[in-house]
Amino acid sequence: MILVKSPFRVSLFGGSTDYEEFYREHGSFIIGCSINKYAYLSVREKPQILSNESTISYSKFERVKKLVDIENNLIRETFKYFNIDKAVEFISFSDIPSRTGLGGSSSYCVGMSYLIRKFLNLKISKREIAKDAIKIEREILKESGGIQDQIWAAYGGLGTISIDKSGTFSVKPLPVTEEFKDELQNSMVLIYSNEQRESDNIAKSHEKQDKTEILRIARLAYQSFLSEDIKEIGELLHQSWLEKSKISEHISTESVDRIISQCMNMGAYGAKLLGAGGCGFVLVVCDPNTKKKIQETFHKNILEFKFDNSGVSTIFNNTNELHS
Fold first, then answer.
1. Domain 2-323 class?
2. pTM for the complete prediction?
Protein backbone atom coordinates (compact mmCIF):
# COMPACT_ATOMS: atom_id res chain seq x y z
CA MET A 1 0.00 0.00 0.00
CA ILE A 2 1.09 3.57 -0.69
CA LEU A 3 -0.29 6.57 1.20
CA VAL A 4 0.48 10.13 0.07
CA LYS A 5 -0.59 13.66 0.97
CA SER A 6 -1.03 16.62 -1.36
CA PRO A 7 -1.32 20.17 0.04
CA PHE A 8 -3.96 22.81 -0.50
CA ARG A 9 -2.85 26.30 -1.50
CA VAL A 10 -3.37 29.97 -0.75
CA SER A 11 -3.03 32.25 -3.78
CA LEU A 12 -1.88 35.71 -2.72
CA PHE A 13 -1.31 37.65 -5.97
CA GLY A 14 -1.79 37.13 -9.68
CA GLY A 15 -4.74 34.76 -9.47
CA SER A 16 -6.61 34.23 -12.76
CA THR A 17 -3.63 35.49 -14.82
CA ASP A 18 -2.69 31.79 -15.02
CA TYR A 19 -5.52 31.07 -17.49
CA GLU A 20 -4.10 29.97 -20.84
CA GLU A 21 -5.93 32.58 -22.91
CA PHE A 22 -4.35 35.29 -20.72
CA TYR A 23 -0.76 34.07 -20.26
CA ARG A 24 -0.46 33.23 -23.97
CA GLU A 25 -0.73 36.97 -24.60
CA HIS A 26 0.67 38.58 -21.43
CA GLY A 27 2.52 35.93 -19.44
CA SER A 28 1.68 35.41 -15.77
CA PHE A 29 3.24 36.06 -12.37
CA ILE A 30 1.80 34.43 -9.24
CA ILE A 31 2.71 34.76 -5.56
CA GLY A 32 1.33 32.16 -3.18
CA CYS A 33 1.98 29.22 -0.92
CA SER A 34 0.88 25.74 0.03
CA ILE A 35 -0.48 25.11 3.53
CA ASN A 36 -0.50 22.19 5.94
CA LYS A 37 -3.99 21.03 4.99
CA TYR A 38 -4.02 18.04 2.68
CA ALA A 39 -5.82 15.61 0.45
CA TYR A 40 -4.78 12.07 1.47
CA LEU A 41 -4.81 9.26 -1.07
CA SER A 42 -3.83 5.60 -0.92
CA VAL A 43 -3.79 2.69 -3.33
CA ARG A 44 -2.85 -0.95 -3.31
CA GLU A 45 -3.18 -3.81 -5.73
CA LYS A 46 -6.10 -6.00 -4.74
CA PRO A 47 -4.86 -9.27 -3.18
CA GLN A 48 -5.77 -12.27 -5.35
CA ILE A 49 -7.67 -13.92 -2.53
CA LEU A 50 -10.19 -11.07 -2.63
CA SER A 51 -12.65 -10.32 -5.43
CA ASN A 52 -11.29 -8.97 -8.70
CA GLU A 53 -13.46 -5.85 -8.46
CA SER A 54 -11.84 -2.51 -7.70
CA THR A 55 -13.10 -0.54 -4.72
CA ILE A 56 -12.99 3.25 -4.93
CA SER A 57 -13.67 5.33 -1.82
CA TYR A 58 -13.95 9.14 -1.74
CA SER A 59 -17.06 11.05 -0.62
CA LYS A 60 -18.87 8.09 -2.20
CA PHE A 61 -18.04 4.39 -2.42
CA GLU A 62 -17.84 2.59 -5.75
CA ARG A 63 -17.25 -1.05 -6.62
CA VAL A 64 -16.38 -1.60 -10.30
CA LYS A 65 -15.20 -4.48 -12.48
CA LYS A 66 -13.24 -2.06 -14.68
CA LEU A 67 -11.68 1.26 -13.70
CA VAL A 68 -13.16 2.89 -16.81
CA ASP A 69 -16.57 2.41 -15.18
CA ILE A 70 -15.78 4.72 -12.23
CA GLU A 71 -18.41 7.46 -11.95
CA ASN A 72 -16.08 10.14 -10.57
CA ASN A 73 -14.66 11.91 -13.63
CA LEU A 74 -11.32 12.96 -12.15
CA ILE A 75 -10.53 9.57 -10.59
CA ARG A 76 -11.63 7.65 -13.68
CA GLU A 77 -9.67 9.79 -16.14
CA THR A 78 -6.54 9.76 -14.01
CA PHE A 79 -6.52 5.96 -13.87
CA LYS A 80 -7.13 5.91 -17.64
CA TYR A 81 -4.31 8.42 -18.20
CA PHE A 82 -1.87 5.96 -16.61
CA ASN A 83 -3.44 2.87 -18.27
CA ILE A 84 -4.12 1.07 -14.99
CA ASP A 85 -5.81 -2.24 -15.80
CA LYS A 86 -5.49 -4.19 -12.55
CA ALA A 87 -7.91 -4.42 -9.65
CA VAL A 88 -7.07 -1.88 -6.95
CA GLU A 89 -8.28 -0.53 -3.65
CA PHE A 90 -8.23 3.26 -3.73
CA ILE A 91 -9.13 5.42 -0.72
CA SER A 92 -9.09 9.19 -0.30
CA PHE A 93 -10.08 11.78 2.29
CA SER A 94 -9.33 15.42 3.00
CA ASP A 95 -8.73 18.03 5.72
CA ILE A 96 -10.90 20.62 3.92
CA PRO A 97 -14.38 20.52 2.31
CA SER A 98 -14.30 20.48 -1.49
CA ARG A 99 -15.12 23.52 -3.64
CA THR A 100 -13.92 26.09 -1.10
CA GLY A 101 -11.27 28.01 -3.07
CA LEU A 102 -8.11 26.31 -1.75
CA GLY A 103 -7.32 24.40 -4.95
CA GLY A 104 -8.76 21.13 -3.69
CA SER A 105 -9.50 19.38 -6.99
CA SER A 106 -6.02 20.13 -8.34
CA SER A 107 -4.43 19.03 -5.07
CA TYR A 108 -6.37 15.78 -5.44
CA CYS A 109 -5.29 15.33 -9.06
CA VAL A 110 -1.64 16.02 -8.21
CA GLY A 111 -1.90 13.53 -5.36
CA MET A 112 -3.30 10.89 -7.73
CA SER A 113 -0.57 11.48 -10.30
CA TYR A 114 2.15 11.17 -7.67
CA LEU A 115 0.48 8.14 -6.09
CA ILE A 116 0.07 6.25 -9.36
CA ARG A 117 3.60 7.08 -10.51
CA LYS A 118 4.81 5.57 -7.22
CA PHE A 119 2.50 2.59 -7.69
CA LEU A 120 3.83 1.92 -11.21
CA ASN A 121 7.43 2.76 -10.30
CA LEU A 122 7.52 5.52 -12.95
CA LYS A 123 9.75 8.58 -13.11
CA ILE A 124 8.76 11.19 -10.55
CA SER A 125 9.51 14.91 -10.66
CA LYS A 126 7.52 17.86 -9.39
CA ARG A 127 7.32 19.29 -12.91
CA GLU A 128 6.02 16.05 -14.44
CA ILE A 129 3.42 15.62 -11.69
CA ALA A 130 2.16 19.20 -12.15
CA LYS A 131 2.03 18.73 -15.93
CA ASP A 132 0.09 15.46 -15.51
CA ALA A 133 -2.56 17.21 -13.43
CA ILE A 134 -2.76 20.21 -15.79
CA LYS A 135 -3.27 17.90 -18.76
CA ILE A 136 -5.92 15.81 -17.00
CA GLU A 137 -7.93 18.75 -15.65
CA ARG A 138 -7.56 21.29 -18.44
CA GLU A 139 -7.22 19.12 -21.58
CA ILE A 140 -8.87 15.77 -20.87
CA LEU A 141 -11.66 16.91 -18.53
CA LYS A 142 -11.78 20.34 -20.22
CA GLU A 143 -12.45 22.09 -16.92
CA SER A 144 -12.07 25.86 -16.93
CA GLY A 145 -9.36 27.40 -14.77
CA GLY A 146 -5.69 28.21 -14.51
CA ILE A 147 -2.61 26.14 -13.82
CA GLN A 148 -1.25 27.54 -10.56
CA ASP A 149 -3.18 25.13 -8.29
CA GLN A 150 -1.53 22.06 -9.78
CA ILE A 151 1.91 23.69 -9.53
CA TRP A 152 1.51 24.71 -5.87
CA ALA A 153 0.36 21.23 -4.88
CA ALA A 154 3.31 19.61 -6.63
CA TYR A 155 6.05 22.02 -5.50
CA GLY A 156 4.83 23.39 -2.17
CA GLY A 157 6.40 26.28 -0.29
CA LEU A 158 6.01 30.07 -0.25
CA GLY A 159 7.14 31.43 -3.58
CA THR A 160 6.44 32.66 -7.07
CA ILE A 161 5.31 31.06 -10.31
CA SER A 162 6.27 32.70 -13.60
CA ILE A 163 4.53 31.50 -16.76
CA ASP A 164 5.77 32.65 -20.15
CA LYS A 165 3.71 32.99 -23.31
CA SER A 166 4.57 29.44 -24.38
CA GLY A 167 3.13 28.04 -21.15
CA THR A 168 6.51 27.11 -19.68
CA PHE A 169 6.53 27.75 -15.95
CA SER A 170 9.23 28.29 -13.35
CA VAL A 171 8.83 28.09 -9.58
CA LYS A 172 11.09 29.97 -7.16
CA PRO A 173 11.00 30.42 -3.38
CA LEU A 174 10.52 33.98 -2.20
CA PRO A 175 13.93 35.40 -1.16
CA VAL A 176 12.79 36.40 2.34
CA THR A 177 14.06 35.61 5.82
CA GLU A 178 12.66 32.82 7.99
CA GLU A 179 11.71 35.48 10.54
CA PHE A 180 9.59 37.25 7.91
CA LYS A 181 7.89 33.97 6.92
CA ASP A 182 6.89 33.46 10.55
CA GLU A 183 5.68 37.06 10.82
CA LEU A 184 3.69 36.75 7.58
CA GLN A 185 2.11 33.47 8.65
CA ASN A 186 1.15 35.02 12.00
CA SER A 187 -0.39 37.99 10.16
CA MET A 188 -2.74 35.84 8.08
CA VAL A 189 -6.22 34.60 8.96
CA LEU A 190 -8.44 32.20 7.00
CA ILE A 191 -12.19 32.57 7.54
CA TYR A 192 -14.59 29.98 6.14
CA SER A 193 -17.71 31.53 4.65
CA ASN A 194 -19.59 28.27 5.31
CA GLU A 195 -20.53 27.94 1.67
CA GLN A 196 -19.40 25.72 -1.18
CA ARG A 197 -19.78 26.27 -4.90
CA GLU A 198 -19.47 24.57 -8.25
CA SER A 199 -16.46 26.41 -9.59
CA ASP A 200 -16.53 25.63 -13.31
CA ASN A 201 -19.11 28.27 -14.30
CA ILE A 202 -17.41 30.83 -12.06
CA ALA A 203 -14.03 29.91 -13.56
CA LYS A 204 -15.46 30.37 -17.05
CA SER A 205 -16.45 33.92 -16.11
CA HIS A 206 -12.72 34.75 -15.79
CA GLU A 207 -12.08 33.95 -19.44
CA LYS A 208 -11.49 36.70 -22.01
CA GLN A 209 -11.34 39.39 -19.32
CA ASP A 210 -8.75 42.14 -18.91
CA LYS A 211 -6.54 41.06 -15.99
CA THR A 212 -3.49 43.19 -16.76
CA GLU A 213 -4.02 45.27 -13.60
CA ILE A 214 -4.04 42.11 -11.45
CA LEU A 215 -0.76 41.12 -13.10
CA ARG A 216 0.72 44.59 -12.50
CA ILE A 217 -0.22 44.47 -8.80
CA ALA A 218 1.34 41.00 -8.46
CA ARG A 219 4.66 42.28 -9.81
CA LEU A 220 4.43 45.33 -7.56
CA ALA A 221 3.68 43.11 -4.54
CA TYR A 222 6.89 41.16 -5.19
CA GLN A 223 8.85 44.29 -4.29
CA SER A 224 6.87 44.52 -1.03
CA PHE A 225 7.92 40.96 -0.21
CA LEU A 226 11.55 41.86 -0.89
CA SER A 227 11.10 44.80 1.52
CA GLU A 228 9.33 42.46 3.96
CA ASP A 229 6.58 45.05 4.37
CA ILE A 230 3.48 43.20 5.60
CA LYS A 231 1.26 46.29 5.78
CA GLU A 232 1.97 47.11 2.14
CA ILE A 233 1.43 43.48 1.16
CA GLY A 234 -1.99 43.56 2.83
CA GLU A 235 -2.95 46.82 1.16
CA LEU A 236 -1.96 45.48 -2.25
CA LEU A 237 -3.82 42.25 -1.53
CA HIS A 238 -7.01 44.25 -1.02
CA GLN A 239 -6.34 46.35 -4.12
CA SER A 240 -5.93 43.16 -6.13
CA TRP A 241 -9.20 41.80 -4.72
CA LEU A 242 -11.07 44.92 -5.77
CA GLU A 243 -9.73 44.45 -9.31
CA LYS A 244 -10.60 40.74 -9.34
CA SER A 245 -14.13 41.38 -8.09
CA LYS A 246 -14.73 43.50 -11.22
CA ILE A 247 -14.23 40.47 -13.49
CA SER A 248 -17.81 39.25 -13.12
CA GLU A 249 -20.84 39.41 -10.86
CA HIS A 250 -20.13 35.80 -9.83
CA ILE A 251 -16.84 36.57 -8.04
CA SER A 252 -18.25 37.75 -4.72
CA THR A 253 -21.44 37.40 -2.68
CA GLU A 254 -23.22 39.41 -0.01
CA SER A 255 -21.87 37.04 2.64
CA VAL A 256 -18.28 37.36 1.43
CA ASP A 257 -18.57 41.15 1.09
CA ARG A 258 -19.87 41.31 4.65
CA ILE A 259 -16.94 39.29 6.04
CA ILE A 260 -14.39 41.39 4.16
CA SER A 261 -16.07 44.64 5.23
CA GLN A 262 -16.13 43.56 8.88
CA CYS A 263 -12.44 42.67 8.82
CA MET A 264 -11.45 45.92 7.12
CA ASN A 265 -13.49 47.90 9.65
CA MET A 266 -11.61 46.13 12.46
CA GLY A 267 -8.34 47.44 11.01
CA ALA A 268 -7.15 44.70 8.62
CA TYR A 269 -4.56 45.74 6.03
CA GLY A 270 -6.37 43.78 3.35
CA ALA A 271 -8.66 40.84 2.60
CA LYS A 272 -9.72 38.74 -0.38
CA LEU A 273 -11.77 35.69 -1.27
CA LEU A 274 -9.61 32.78 -2.36
CA GLY A 275 -10.23 30.74 -5.49
CA ALA A 276 -12.29 31.49 -8.58
CA GLY A 277 -15.00 33.13 -6.51
CA GLY A 278 -18.49 32.62 -5.17
CA CYS A 279 -17.67 31.44 -1.66
CA GLY A 280 -15.13 29.47 0.34
CA PHE A 281 -12.30 30.97 2.39
CA VAL A 282 -11.53 34.64 2.94
CA LEU A 283 -7.86 35.46 3.54
CA VAL A 284 -7.11 38.43 5.80
CA VAL A 285 -3.73 40.11 6.38
CA CYS A 286 -3.55 42.19 9.55
CA ASP A 287 -1.56 43.17 12.65
CA PRO A 288 -1.62 40.96 15.80
CA ASN A 289 -4.22 43.02 17.66
CA THR A 290 -6.60 43.02 14.70
CA LYS A 291 -6.03 39.29 14.22
CA LYS A 292 -7.12 38.67 17.79
CA LYS A 293 -10.34 40.66 17.24
CA ILE A 294 -11.05 38.80 13.99
CA GLN A 295 -10.47 35.43 15.64
CA GLU A 296 -12.84 36.33 18.46
CA THR A 297 -15.51 37.48 15.99
CA PHE A 298 -15.29 34.53 13.59
CA HIS A 299 -13.93 31.91 16.01
CA LYS A 300 -16.18 29.09 14.77
CA ASN A 301 -15.07 29.59 11.17
CA ILE A 302 -11.33 30.20 11.60
CA LEU A 303 -8.99 27.70 9.93
CA GLU A 304 -5.65 27.50 11.72
CA PHE A 305 -2.79 26.71 9.33
CA LYS A 306 0.92 26.85 8.73
CA PHE A 307 2.93 27.00 5.51
CA ASP A 308 3.73 23.66 3.89
CA ASN A 309 7.25 23.42 2.49
CA SER A 310 7.36 20.00 0.81
CA GLY A 311 4.52 19.80 -1.70
CA VAL A 312 3.08 16.38 -2.51
CA SER A 313 4.87 13.67 -0.52
CA THR A 314 4.78 10.06 0.66
CA ILE A 315 3.54 9.12 4.12
CA PHE A 316 3.80 5.32 3.81
CA ASN A 317 5.00 2.92 1.12
CA ASN A 318 5.38 -0.85 1.43
CA THR A 319 5.13 -1.69 -2.27
CA ASN A 320 8.48 -3.46 -2.33
CA GLU A 321 7.22 -5.80 0.35
CA LEU A 322 3.85 -6.10 -1.38
CA HIS A 323 5.28 -7.09 -4.76
CA SER A 324 8.05 -9.40 -3.46
1. alpha beta
2. 0.93
